[in-house]
Amino acid sequence: MSDHRKVRALMKDRVATVHPDTSLKAIAVLLASWGVSGAPVVEEDGTVVGVVSQGDLLRRKAAHGRFRIAGAALRRKETGSYASDLMTAPAVTVGRDEDVSRAARLMEERRVHRLPVVDEDGKLVGVVARGDLLRVFLRSDNDIRAEVRDQVLLRDMCVDPDSLSVAVHDGVVSLRGQVERSGMIPVVTALVRGVDGVVAVHEYLTARFEDTAATDTGDENVGILSARKHPR
Question: What is the pTM of this model?
Fold first, then answer.
């Protein structure tokens, strides 16, 4: 899988952060100055312990002066004055080596707009937002075609890229030509479908030989994959 499908390739490494002891007012100033809706709450050693957002600040403001019977955690969130009181914990984080699809699923499942990115020790290394993930689908047709030819065909499948026609229009890839064996066709199609920016794959490939099931030779340690000429 290409590196730009990993979170580390899309994340921002400059992150607005707050300490658990940061005051409500200081949090509001920081969010406004950075133009972000939330910030990770980070300990001195870089460990992410929570996330505080504009929504947390607004809930704190709305609860001011209101009598309410609630649990200790909610009372602290509605009356507290520091990040440790207001934050949502534990933080929903994603590893820097996770696939982009994993980050997207987390955002959808947890209904968040950004995720702190952590290393193997849970230390903050960046942040990734929904807008960052959308960059995956903003690649040019030329970039997509180049990856299909150079990565999928040449490196992954050991196929001469010039032996097939690869056309890309608005993210839709059309494949035409003849490969050596029919079993290669679904593999090529699946690999192309996994390329960043690909919306759909139209496959018009034929095969020189059609793969058949392995032939039993009587020796349990030997299997022969036979092939027959593919009709044109």
Answer: 0.61
